TrEMBL record:
<dbReference type="InterPro" id="IPR043129">
    <property type="entry name" value="ATPase_NBD"/>
</dbReference>
<protein>
    <recommendedName>
        <fullName>Heat shock 70 kDa protein 12A</fullName>
    </recommendedName>
</protein>
Length: 584
């Protein structure tokens, strides 16, 4: 389905989507020609790449001992590179995307096998190195393929390219801020505040756009779950559609989910099995080779738990029948391989059922995309578990491993999603006037305002946005502030608190305290905001009253903020506000 309109700009432009996956990465782009309908294309040539693997490259970097990049992507798989890496003891960095995961996942035992970052390299620096490489790849590809003159075209747009960066559903503002820093360090843009050229989209929403462009249709008042099964995460998003004339839009109908149960965790269980079986034998040194062979071939070929899996790793002299090794192949029973998949299958099924029960529409189907979606075993187990429940499972008949990068470009061009669902309650901690008859106030006691002398109660939680609310993109949420200060306010800083507890009506942050976290801090210059002067009772000293609102736009894929106040003529005025995230 495509309702894309011709590009209305006056000069050629370029949109580039960079999808850095846990195990593989890809690039899609669209050249916007005035008067023509934009098309989405992929970079299909990378240095060192086998032509049969043209759509993606491994998310791997080799560094030398000084921290200098020596090889990236498909080049890391070349025999000459591997030999040099071993000889010169280069440091292999893979699965580095997982180091950006939210703090709540850091101690999860599922991540025990995530390789460490190289010494003296932050995750932002590693991300930047990979982004810099992807930028060079798309530059070369466009210069070679875009007609009539790709070189001059790139030179004309390179300082105004629109970049779309995708990330798992479970990542929020802090992870986006890290990615923005990496984009600046990589040279995608020159200034971290150049927000107009960097856009973010969740992998779930990008995958929806991919599915819509590849034939996804939803009946009226029906819903669909998009399941993006990748290397590190399984991301789920649920949508319904609505139609106004010829225009079809999509609305999120429940909170998106992100589970760290992607294909690397299947490989991790396979490695545990091989280590346990070969411990103390002469083949123990081959564990890494066997695991790599399973990861590259057997994992995505496995389809029958009643048939054994054979993993090639050595030569004809490598035989030990007691260890199920014959002529350099290790035999693993189908039931054991199925066990490696079980946690991922279970997590996916549980998440789908949760999405269906929470959705604000009837879910009738599941669309499976992502690199892990190529697994016939995963597809068959999801079908087995869901068809009896009336849910049909589909897999688009195209390159499902390019869903995120193609969908990310479509996100920018087509903008199918108009409503999203809030994941948590968001609010602020504030003072309220002391009420001597309120038991909650009596319990907490009061403090005396230094400016006005009024009695106040601290730790009240003022909710700005409730959980599970369907939000339109441009819908505004306000938090009103009434300041009493000894001197006129010049700058403000307000923490936006997210509540992750079970209380449906949180009112005080000193109750369930550990469930409140700072989602971000909004700062703004308020020197233009009007104020009134007053006299403090008793000593008659002057204090200042200020009234303003912080406006938050939660319905976008990236949180935006403004500040608003009433001018002396009573007309609302607005100014910019910055959203700042505390670094881990």
């Amino acid at each position: 389905m495509s309702r894309r309109k011709p590009f209305s700009g006056s000069q050629r432009e370029l949109v580039v989507a960079l999808d850095i996956g846990t195990t593989f990465s890809g690039i899609s782009f669209s050249v916007l020609n005035p008067g023509l309908v934009p098309e989405i294309k992929g970079v299909t040539r990378f240095p060192g790449q086998n032509p049969s693997d043209s759509s993606k490259i491994p998310s791997i970097i080799y560094y030398d001992a000084r921290g200098v990049v020596r090889a990236i992507g498909a080049e890391t798989q070349l025999p000459a590179t591997i030999d040099q890496a071993e000889t010169e003891q280069w440091i292999k960095v893979e699965w580095f995307k997982m180091h950006l995961r939210p703090k709540s996942y850091v101690s999860d035992p599922a991540f025990k096998k995530i390789p460490p970052l190289p010494p003296k390299k932050s995750v932002i620096e590693v991300f930047a190195d990979f982004l810099r490489y992807l930028l060079s790849c798309v530059k070369s590809f466009i210069e070679e393929t875009v007609l009539p003159d790709g070189v001059s075209f790139w030179a004309s747009v390179q300082n105004r390219i629109i970049f779309v960066l995708s990330h798992p559903n479970g990542w929020e503002g802090l992870q986006q801020s890290y990615m923005r820093q990496a984009a600046v360090l990589a040279g995608l843009v020159s200034d971290i505040n150049d927000q107009d050229r960097i856009h973010f989209v969740t992998e779930g929403e990008a995958s929806l756009h991919f599915c819509v462009n590849n034939g996804l249709k939803i009946g009226e008042n029906k819903g669909v779950i998009i399941l993006d099964a990748g290397g590190g995460t399984i991301d789920l998003s649920a949508y319904s559609s609505s139609k106004s004339g010829k225009v079809i839009t999509f609305q999120e109908i429940t909170r998106p989910q992100c589970h760290f149960a992607g294909s690397i965790f299947v490989t991790g269980l396979a490695e545990d099995y091989v280590q346990d079986k070969l411990k103390g034998t002469r083949f123990y040194g081959d564990v890494a080779a066997i695991t790599d062979s399973f990861d590259c071939t057997s994992k995505l070929q496995f389809r029958n738990s009643k048939e054994a899996c054979f993993i090639k790793f050595g030569g004809r002299n490598d035989t030990d029948l007691a260890l199920d090794i014959r002529s350099g192949q290790m035999k693993i029973s189908g039931s054991d391989v199925a066990r490696f998949f079980e946690p991922s299958v279970r997590a996916a099924l549980k998440a789908i059922l949760k999405q269906r029960s929470d959705a604000q529409a009837t879910i009738t189907s599941v669309f499976l995309v992502g690199g892990f979606a190529a697994s016939p075993w995963l597809l068959s187990k999801l079908k087995d578990g869901l068809q009896l429940l009336g849910l049909e499972v589909y897999r688009p008949d195209t390159h499902v491993n390019k869903a995120v990068s193609d969908g990310a470009v479509s996100f920018y061009l087509d903008h199918f999603v108009t409503k999203r669902v809030s994941r948590w309650p968001y609010g602020v901690s504030c003072f309220v006037g002391y009420d001597k008859d309120n038991p909650e106030h009596q319990r907490r006691g009061y403090i005396v305002s230094k400016a006005s002398g009024c009695l106040k109660v601290d730790n009240s939680y003022s909710v700005i946005l409730e959980k599970d609310v369907q939000i339109e993109e441009e819908q505004e949420f306000r938090s009103l502030y009434f300041g009493e200060t000894i001197a006129p306010l010049r700058k403000i800083s307000a923490d936006i608190l997210r509540y992750e507890g079970a209380n449906k009506n949180p009112e005080w942050i000193d109750v369930d305290t550990e469930m409140y976290t700072t989602a971000c801090t909004v700062t703004a210059d308020v020197s233009r905001v009007s104020y009134t002067t007053h006299r403090k009772p008793g000593n008659g000293s002057t204090y200042y009253k200020t009234s303003y609102a912080i406006i938050l736009l939660f319905g976008l894929t990236e949180l935006k903020a403004q500040i608003a106040w009433k001018g002396k003529d009573g007309v609302e005025q607005r100014g910019p506000a910055q959203v700042v995230y505390e670094q881990d």
